[in-house]
Design brief:
By secondary structure, the chain is of the alpha+beta class. It has helices at 16-36, 51-71, 89-107, 128-148, 156-175, 223-230, 247-254, and strands spanning 187-191, 197-201, 207-209, 217-221, 242-245. The protein has seven helices and five strands. The two termini are 29 Å apart.
Length: 259
């Protein structure tokens, strides 16, 4: 472990183009869902949102992330990135795709080891962006499809990497916030359909270990089901998850989940 509680044995993430190809695939699927609509379909994973609001959110994030990656600083406001609220489904899908491709154009050229800006408590290096944006849209693409009908599966390798990114970046951010109640025991998470095992604990600050180690509680299951559960999505695959050990510890960790 290094001084920040990060696992120093962490292998390099997947290549940049691997993330960007997944991003583009999910971008096309998301846009397809928008075109099929209806735009007022409720998005269960984001309470109070419909498909139009979810699409606006994703498109704004693409434009915001593009600015952050290109300028190593956040924009003054996200307001200029908001779409015209009167766009029909085809126009809104086109707007989404345009922003996604503009983001990918920047992410293909940034220095992965160069300085950047992002809001997470990990080193501010360019390599955060292709990975973060691939996982951002993988979950929201699932949200969009789930709002209107059947969902395409999330590739197990991408989902496992998404679990890793959630534990390393998103949950690390969550546990540094004063407003959350922190768990008192350790949690082991184990993918059953692809590579991926993790232990998270708070004995000496937030620590993440990528290994088969026993925790006070454990959650085992397919990578997609684990990823969506961590992001607090209710899915028809939830029954494939197997909790083990102290359920109060598991509940405390899952209560940190965000939508």
């Amino acid at each position: 472990m290094n001084a920040e509680g990060q696992d120093s044995s962490r292998a390099d993430p997947h290549p940049r183009d691997w993330y960007l190809e997944h991003l583009l695939t999910d971008l096309d699927r998301f846009a397809g869902a928008v075109r099929r609509g209806p735009l007022d379909a409720e998005v269960a994973g984001c309470p109070g949102w419909d498909l139009r609001r979810l699409t606006a959110h994703q498109g704004v994030i693409h434009r915001w992330a593009r600015h952050c990656a290109a300028n190593a600083a956040p924009p003054e406001s996200r307001d200029p990135y908001e779409p015209d609220p009167t766009l029909d489904a085809d126009a809104l899908a086109t707007w989404l795709v345009e922003g996604g491709h503009a983001l990918v154009d920047v992410l293909r050229t940034i220095d992965l080891d160069g300085p950047t800006w992002h809001p997470f408590p990990v080193p501010k290096l360019g390599r955060v962006w292709p990975r973060r944006q691939a996982h951002e849209i993988s979950v929201h693409r699932w949200d969009a499809e789930h709002a209107i009908g059947p969902t395409a599966p999330i590739d197990p390798a991408l989902a496992s990497d998404g679990v890793d990114e959630y534990l390393d970046i998103v949950m690390r951010r969550l546990v540094t916030r004063d407003s959350v109640t922190l768990p008192t025991g350790s949690l082991h998470i184990h993918c059953t359909d692809t590579h991926g095992e993790w232990l998270v604990e708070l004995d000496h600050g937030y620590q993440l270990t990528r290994a088969h180690e026993k925790g006070a509680a454990a959650l085992r299951g397919p990578a997609q089901a684990l990823l969506l559960r961590l992001w607090n999505r209710d899915t028809d695959r939830a029954g494939e998850l197997s909790p083990v050990g102290d359920e109060s510890v598991l509940d405390a960790w899952l209560a940190l989940s965000t939508r």
